[in-house]
Amino acid sequence: MEGGSPAVSKTAKSILVVDDNPDVCAFMRVALEGAGYEVQTVSEGTQMLPLLRKHPTDLLITDIFMPVQEGFETIEQCKTQFPKINVIAMSAGSTRGMTHDFLETASLLGVDATLRKPFGVDQLLDTVRRVLQTR
Fold first, then answer.
1. What does the DSSP 8-state code read for residue 94?
2. Pairing outcome for strands 38-42 and 14-18
3. N or C: which end of the chain has fewer CB within 10 A?
4. How far, in Å, CA of 91 to CA of 107, rounded?
């Protein structure tokens, strides 16, 4: 296709990004769509289930710390209702004054991979490719 962006293949893997930070969602959308993935974003975990019911996806990437519904509950709901969806958890780490690594806790919930913020495009794409290859 000349003079435009590449068309997304009908067999392209689909990804749902859940993060309350619009800049993170925009960064991830640009990076992932640029690599040929179909991407949807929502700003809170409560929006995940209704969207997944309408538009099944191959991969959920969710932040851990969000208002309304945090990432652990989002992961648990996804794993319970859509067990075949791969999940990547992301976080900047612990909250102020806490030394607990919440990405380790996410691993105990059965996520397929974790990403520590901030991360670059290469790290994001490498992690996504690795997780989706395990399907």
1. P
2. parallel
3. N
4. 12
